[in-house]
């Protein structure tokens, strides 16, 4: 069997699995009381069905990730395609979007398990903050230090509980990992507009490494000083047609020049390695049933198909 035929059969099988999973989510017995206003009952039924359909969509997303067993992870793969208002019934549709969080820099990884700073990740955050927020090196350093104080277990520093307790309303420094990315707005210097600008490049949850197949141009440039905008664009051009299966694939790619040796070094770094594979994903779904809409978000780890959380958006 050729690779193409095999892939095509795999896609058809997945599509069948997907429709079965979604229709199962829709088949729920609703016995609306005759005493309740019919219109209200219908709205309630639609929203409830939309909730189960959105949840079915999360399961389909997890299934797509589990079906992906090769040695690289890129958006051109089945999981990266997603579904956009895909009809599953006459009155129902589903949107599924899977984002690879290992293409982003995971804030929580700034502190290593031994409570030391990951100096490699710190450098990447410094470069990313300067470029994305258009701030000086000193201002970027202050932000990284504030994030460190938020995460580290002690209360020694400029941006610790002694600072936050003077705010209105007062609160304490977390002195631990971020539970959600939006928690970053609580950290000194990270206001909502800044957090929104950083969001495509950062996550709370994620691996220590960075997947070159899914990283943004900004994250690619943040990897090393030697990687300029032209080099980041050359990588993105290359990977659009050819998923990167090993960092070595980039050797000799036109436009990379001095950036390749830097990338090659990152691939074997002891901390925050540059990779071609991912473990941490965010699945977002939106389900529409007549007038009812429900949106869900899940964070999952691919190995062991672990669900870290499921929340209604
Ligand atoms: Ca893959
Ligand atoms: Ca602290």
- The quaternary structure here is single chain
Largest beta-sheet details: 5 strands, antiparallel
Number of domains: 3
- Numbering strands along the chain, what is their spatial order in the largest sheet? 1-2-7-8-9
Supply the number of helical segments: 10
Low-confidence segments, given as residue ranges, are 29-35
**Radius of gyration using CA atoms only:** 22 Å
Helix content: 40-55%
Q: Cofactors and ligands present?
A: calcium ion
Note the gap between the termini: 43 Å
Total E-strand runs? 9
> Mean pLDDT, rounded to whole units?
89
| H/E topology pattern | HHHEEEHHHHEEHHHEEEE
The amount of beta strand, in percent, is 15-25%
Supply the helix-strand structural class. alpha/beta
Shape: globular
């Amino acid at each position: 069997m050729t690779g193409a035929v095999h892939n095509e059969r795999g896609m058809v099988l997945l599509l069948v699995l997907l429709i079965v999973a979604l229709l199962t989510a829709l088949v729920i017995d609703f016995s609306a009381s005759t005493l309740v206003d019919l219109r209200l009952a219908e709205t309630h039924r639609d929203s409830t069905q939309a909730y189960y359909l959105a949840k079915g969509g999360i399961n389909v997303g997890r299934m797509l990730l589990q079906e992906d067993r090769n040695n690289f992870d890129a958006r051109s793969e089945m999981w990266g395609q997603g579904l956009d208002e895909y009809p599953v019934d006459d009155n129902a549709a589903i949107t599924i979007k899977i984002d690879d969080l290992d293409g982003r820099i995971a804030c929580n990884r700034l502190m290593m398990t031994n409570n030391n700073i990951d100096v490699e990740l710190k450098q990447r955050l410094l470069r990313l903050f300067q470029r994305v927020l258009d701030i000086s090196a000193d201002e970027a350093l202050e932000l990284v230090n504030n994030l460190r104080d938020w995460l580290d277990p002690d209360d020694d520093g400029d941006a610790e509980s002694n600072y936050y307790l003077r705010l209105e309303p007062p609160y304490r420094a977390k002195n631990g990992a971020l539970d959600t990315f939006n928690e970053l707005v609580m950290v000194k210097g990270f206001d909502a507009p800044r957090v929104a600008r950083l969001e495509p490049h950062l996550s709370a949850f994620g691996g220590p490494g960075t997947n070159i197949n899914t990283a943004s141009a900004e994250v690619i440039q943040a990897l090393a000083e030697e990687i300029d905008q032209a080099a980041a664009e050359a990588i993105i051009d290359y990977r659009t047609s050819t998923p990167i299966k090993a960092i070595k694939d980039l050797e000799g790619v036109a436009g990379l020049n001095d950036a390749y040796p830097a990338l090659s070094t990152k691939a074997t770094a002891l901390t925050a390695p540059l990779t071609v594979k991912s473990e941490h994903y965010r699945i977002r779904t939106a389900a529409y049933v007549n007038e009812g809409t429900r949106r869900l978000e899940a964070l999952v780890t691919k190995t062991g198909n672990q669900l870290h959380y499921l929340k209604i958006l």
